Amino acid sequence: MSSVDLAVNDRRETGGAPESAAPVRNTLRFFGNELRVTFFRRRNQLLLLVAALFPLLIGIGLKLSMPHGGGGRGPSASGAAYFSQLAANGVFLTFVALSLLLILVLPVVVGVVSGDSIAGEAGYGTLRYLLAVPAGRTRLLAVKYATIVVWAMAATFTVSVIALVVGVALFGAGPVTLLSGTTVSLADGLFHVLLVTLYVCAAMAAFGAIALAISTFTEHAIGAIAAAMIIVVASEVIDNIPQFAPVAPYIPTHWWLSFDSLLRTPIDTTTLWHGLLSFAVYAVLFLSIAWARFTSADVTS
Amino acid sequence: MIQAAPGDRDGPMTVPAPLTSADQGAELAIASSALTKRFRGGQLAVDHVDLAVPRGAVYGFLGPNGSGKTTTIRMLLGLAFPTSGSAELLGVPMPEGATRVLSRVGSLVEGPAFYPYLSGWDNLARYDAADRTASARTAKARIGEAMERVGLTGAAKKKFRNYSLGMKQRLAIAAALLTPRDLIILDEPTNGLDPQGTREVRALVRQIAAEGITVFVSSHLLAEVEQVSTHVGVMRLGKLVFQGELAALRRTAAPRVAVRTGDTAAAAEVLAKLSLVDPVVVDGLVTAELGDVAPEKVTAELVHAGVGVRGLSVEAPSLEDLFVGLTGEGFDVER
Question: Are residues B45 and B158 in the same domain?
């Protein structure tokens, strides 16, 4: 009321629209802006480009080694099952690519953006301005995580789609023989590709929640990203040590590669649900930690 | 509500409170009560600060670096949580009411902060998008107007990382003016600016205040806010050691008589006989607080006592001296 001049000046243009009448619409606007800033950032575009290059390189590499090796050997034991199928069907390149990239590349692509999400804002000092705007702490966190989920899906689908295109181009397409031995039509096979991709999206979204939680504890983005990566690598190491077998099902990366249960008929739903449950628990747990921390901590940067 | 500096030279520092009605909350743009912040290390950064910033005032929030100004501002804006005490912005309790009231408060805290990889325009658009009350339809017009106001229209498409220091500062002020505000909080708005930039900021503050917006501006330099402020608050070691109208601070200036003489001992004796307090002798010069004694009486007494007077003057301490008196001399790290 004391800023009459300015207020009149500006409210004339708003046409008297009641303030905060559309909180949902305004939050969507914020979300849209966050997506734009994330996807237009050069660093992030390069990350997606790198993620896209891997399936291409894997495809070419496998194609070159195919006539000699007979397709029996692969760089990873977990991917080995798919290699034998690849010679006959390019669709399998998506499974090969996803299982190889899940080890490190996809977690890096997701971890960089989600580890940076709060810590990066704190590092730039933009966090204090976002909160003074006011963006609202819970609302900001929600927008950040929604963006991470979209980003994780974008990265996973980039790998999946590029691998599919490259695979079909190099190895051809046809009816898909699943791991259980049954052969399904190409359309059915593509549906399995979609399910597998969505499963990996869920895994990456859960991992994004872990990195986001770490991100609320520091103003050094690089530290948050590194910590998230260490969790991935440590978790994978533990998963491969037989003595840790009793705790293995509870570590964050254990179920990431379980999407092969989707490549059997009937689908191995027990494993599938275990995986999805693990992702959900991790997401809820770490989002709660992120929320508890972010809504109670002083912003000192 | 008005605090006097302990051990001050003369007379009561108490000045009339700007407001005495019971309904202060609505009349004060900023009010805090025993606002306290103790850092985890145990350091008391802000110690029972009772701010009272009347609406429409230009309030200069002064104090040396490290005296708790920024921490106070962070608590006012809901960025930091007080250890004890409370604060209100425009009558709304903070930090609980942050999302309700902050859209009417523009702020610049500890220097500008933007995304280096975005243009000036996109940076403002981002903050505007984050505001839950700002309308998307008017965003373009408002951003354009804010950039125009700080003279950045020509650099709107330039990446923030290529902005000069002065441009960054102006962009931050533009961000504070994105939507209609009732209160503007500027923390050290001239930090790092050249004299030209400092003048520009001062002109902007005047312009904002002329629109009836309350301005709360912090600085470690009295000179920077002296010309624009109606009220001042002075911080020292986390405590608010003075608060009131600038004119009231000026009134606390106790005039001193200075006698230039070859016989300082005799002159000091005369001044003591006149019961002038706080005598100081420095080679060839004797000074003391004048109090109620007329300067001509001092002259007469000196002549009567046969002291050879080379010069006699009455000096009121500058505001700067008062400020230093309140905050202590610089350079010594007090904690």
Answer: yes
Residue B171 in domain: yes
| Contact call for residues B217 and B39 (beta carbons, < 8 A) | no
**Residue listed under structure tokens 């009350």:** B133
Does B175 share its domain with B274? Answer: no
- In our burial notation (b when 16+ CB lie closer than 10 A, e otherwise), range B246-256 reads bebbeebbbeb
Q: Which residues of A touch B96 (CB under 8 A)?
A: none
Over residues B292-315, the mean pLDDT reads 85
Residues B305 and B241 in one domain: no
* Domains of chain B: total: 2
Domain assignment present for B330? no
A146 min Cα distance to partner chain B (Å): 15
User: What are the E-state strand segments in chain B?
Assistant: 28-38, 44-49, 52-54, 58-62, 84-89, 92-94, 105-108, 183-187, 214-219, 231-236, 239-245, 256-261, 280-282, 285-289, 309-315
How far apart (Å, rounded) are the C-alpha atoms in residues B147 and B75? 28
The full length of chain B comes to 335
Minimum mean pLDDT range among A78-82, A186-190, B113-117, B150-154 = A78-82
Report phi then psi at A19, rounded to 5: -70, 150
Query: Does B36 lie in the same domain as B119?
Result: yes
Question: What pLDDT is recorded for position A80?
Answer: 60
* Interatomic CA distance for residues B233 and B4, integer angstroms: 11
Residue B329 pLDDT level (bands cut at 50, 70, 90): low
Q: Average pLDDT in the A139-167 region?
A: 96
Residue A301 has a pLDDT of 76
Count the alpha carbons within 13 Å of A138 in the hemisphere toward its beta carbon: 4
Give the separation between CA A212 and CA A205, rounded to whole angstroms.
10
Q: Which residue in chain B has the smallest CA separation from A27?
A: B132
- On chain A, the residues whose CB falls within 8 A of the CB of B109 are 128-129, 132
B215 falls in which pLDDT band (50, 70, 90)?
very high
Question: In terms of domains, do B70 and B145 share one?
Answer: yes
3-state DSSP assignment of residue A111: helix
pLDDT at B333 exceeding the cut of 60: no
- Residue B116, preceding bond cis, omega within 30 degrees? no
Burial class (CB in 10 A: 0-12, 13-18, 19+), B330: exposed
List CB contacts (< 8 A) between B126 and chain A. Answer: 33, 37
Per-residue buried b or exposed e for B297-325, using 16+ beta carbons within 10 Å of the residue's own CB:
ebeebbeeeebebeebeeeebebeebbeb
Q: How far apart are CA B191 and CA B217, in angstroms?
A: 12
What pTM, to 2 d.p., does this model score? 0.82
| Same-domain status, B293 and B197 | no
Same domain, B240 and B262: no
Range with the poorest average pLDDT among A62-76, B27-41, B235-249, B291-305? A62-76
Contacts of A118 (CB under 8 A, 6+ apart): A127, A141, A144, A212, A215, A216, A224, A290, A294
Beta-ladder partners of B285: B260, B282
Instruction: Tell me if chain A has a CB within 8 Å of the CB of B136.
Output: yes
Does residue B289 share a domain with residue B170? no
Parse chain A into domains and list their residue ranges.
22-294
- The single-letter code of the amino acid at B310 is R
Task: Tell me if chain A has a CB within 8 Å of the CB of B118.
Answer: yes
State how far the Cα of B289 lies from the Cα of B298, in Å rounded to an integer.
12
Residue range(s) defining the domain that contains residue B277: 256-315
- B191 within domain boundaries: yes
Per-residue confidence band for A286, with pLDDT thresholds at 50, 70 and 90: very high
Is the Cβ–Cβ distance between A239 and A253 less than 8 Å? yes
B58 located within any domain: yes
